[in-house]
User: Fold this.
Amino acid sequence: MRRAGRLVVAITLVALCACGGGSSSDSASGKGKKNSTPAPTGISADDPGCRYIVAGTDGRATNPGGAVEYLNTAVAEPFACYDKVTFNFALDEEAVPTTIPVSTTESTASVTCTPAYTVEYREAPFGLEVDGKGVPTSVASFDQAKAVLYVELAPAISVSTYGARPELAYPGNLKLAFKGMHHVVMVEWVKNLPEGEQTPVTPPTVAGVAPLPQRVVWLIGLDRKRPFTVDCATGPPPGTTCQATACTHMSVLIMK
Assistant:
């Protein structure tokens, strides 16, 4: 009887070891490898492609240059592992070509995105001041916006009406509508910049006077500071069409 009992125990242990071997086989075949791959902070490696996104809280910027582009649409939408805010731009092919100065330490070859961008966390008044007073913004007084991403695109322009080329005008709204976002609580267009209302006419250059910057500014309010990254490309975003012969888009991805 004792020998029979020992035999049953031995058979049970062998069966358990065999089951454990199946788990090792899964790892060797690649099914378990994702668990050993470090994922970015707060992002599940189970989400498709998320582990390959490089994001952080430091500011990101590219060198300005090239022709002025027109903002014509802006969209905020949630995805599996990030909130995405996309800005779409188009060129005015009928306008006289213009460029903005590039410093002596830079060259047009260093321009990586058109329009160029600056995206960084800022506190109110976000560097938008006139005579020591900040430009009024809704996100600055919105209690749920615990952190704000400042987004500046240049050389670029956004006008609500443009009679000659209505398809190039940004029709609004001042604040984007969205639902189901992970951390974004407000996306606001700063229409009234410190330099005044934008117009589709390039201001004349006056000797000894710096030209007015042609820029588009948006503020993205978040429920807390989150890692982000920026993506830009020529052509329209997937699934959309270009409003002109040439267009580009730029997206801010705020990680879940």
The mean pLDDT is 76.
